[in-house]
Design goal:
The chain is of the alpha/beta class. 38% of the residues lie in helices and 20% in strands. It contains eleven helices and 14 strands. It has helices at 14-27, 44-51, 66-76, 95-105, 176-181, 194-204, 232-249, 254-269, 274-294, 306-309, 317-322, and strands at residues 5-10, 32-37, 56-59, 81-85, 89-91, 109-118, 133-136, 141-143, 146-147, 150-151, 163-164, 171-175, 208-219, 312-313. Helix 1 (14-27) runs parallel beside helix 2 (44-51), helix 6 packs parallel to helix 7 and helix 7 runs parallel beside helix 9.
Length: 335
């Protein structure tokens, strides 16, 4: 099997990148790694050059979002397979080889996500990705192992290798040619939900995304965009980008109804989350209106494939979680 190239984007955090690279080389001393220093200002560059001389280093003269920075590295790679890996992760033994086995076993598969667990509470899943992503009919993403802030302990309940709707960019193996063919990450997203959009496009084109339970990565989470009680920039990007993904990938004319229904849900949520959800949504409205008008011709216009429909939760995950008390993926009914 051809060795995948690991692509990492790093801003700041000397200990974080050291731990990440050390775990990769502990698993595979010959690992191929490309590292983009995204306007890094601390001593990370010198540490990497001194301790990990085989890492291919790229420097930028301006701050890039995750989507653009990832595309930058993909364009410079010549490998058949690439792995997007967050800098605030530690990988486990055989994490890379197990993902590649999953991809090879499934004919239409072009991307595979690791099991993503918490760095600090290693018996629990992590918010980002957990055991594989799905969406509801309104484009709200959720994961096996994590519904909103309800995060499960990993008791082996999701140790099945299955097709998922989307894989998280925290640790995502991708066929590079297929990634480029599908248009790569949409750089308008800047960061957050770019992998959701890519996987949605892949599903619509007849390709598949899979989850590999034998590949485990431990993730700190929100390291580059510092986690605060309420981070308006982060919440704005998440709210805006989920709308964009829905606009781009749902088919016309159902798109208009879904956007209307999703907007009603956002308005309802103003009462419960006025700052976290309400304000970011209101700020994003002018951008979304312009996007819908200007990008309409580039959006999905064909009916959603039947196999893809089966992976979309047919109700509102928010209403089922907050009003009906659905706290785990297994409590949901996709029928």
């Amino acid at each position: 099997m051809e060795e995948p190239e690991i692509l990492i984007i790093h801003l700041n955090g000397e200990k974080v990148i050291d731990n990440c690279l050390n775990s990769i080389y502990e698993d595979d001393k010959k690992a191929k790694i490309s590292l983009l220093f995204n306007q890094t200002t601390d001593n990370s560059i010198n540490i990497v050059k001194m301790k990990y001389p085989s890492v291919k280093i790229y420097l930028t003269d301006r701050r890039m979002g995750f989507a653009e920075a990832s595309n930058y590295l993909v364009k410079r790679s010549k490998s058949k397979y690439i792995i997007f890996l967050n800098n605030d992760t530690v990988v486990s033994k055989n994490w890379k080889s197990e993902m590649l086995k999953t991809l090879k076993r499934n004919k239409k598969c072009i991307a595979v996500q690791s099991k993503i667990k918490s760095y600090y509470q290693r018996d629990k899943f992590e918010n980002a990705g957990a055991a594989g992503g799905f969406i509801d009919k309104y484009g709200y993403p959720f994961c096996r192992g994590r519904l909103f802030n309800s995060v499960e302990k990993d008791k082996g309940q999701y140790n099945d290798e299955i097709r998922i709707f989307w894989g998280c960019g925290v640790s995502l193996l991708v066929d590079r040619k297929e990634f480029i063919k599908l248009g790569m990450f949409d750089e308008k997203f800047f960061m957050y939900a770019e992998e959701l959009d890519f996987c949605w496009r892949a599903n619509n084109s007849g390709k598949e995304i899979w989850f590999c339970p034998k590949s485990t990565v431990y993730h700190i989470g929100s390291f580059s965009i510092k986690e605060e009680k309420i981070n308006l920039k982060k919440e704005y990007l998440i709210s805006r980008n989920h709308y964009i993904a829905l606009m781009k990938n749902s088919h016309f004319p159902q798109r208009l109804l879904l956007i209307f229904q999703k907007t009603m849900l956002e308005i309802i949520s103003l009462g419960r989350f006025p700052v976290k959800r309400g304000l970011p949504f209101l700020i994003s409205v002018p951008y979304l209106a312009h996007y819908l008008i200007s990008e309409h011709k580039n959006m999905q216009h064909h009916k959603i494939r039947e196999d893809v429909k089966k992976m979309i939760y047919p109700r509102s995950i928010a209403l089922d979680h907050f009003l009906r008390g659905k706290k785990t993926f297994k409590s949901l009914n996709f029928a």
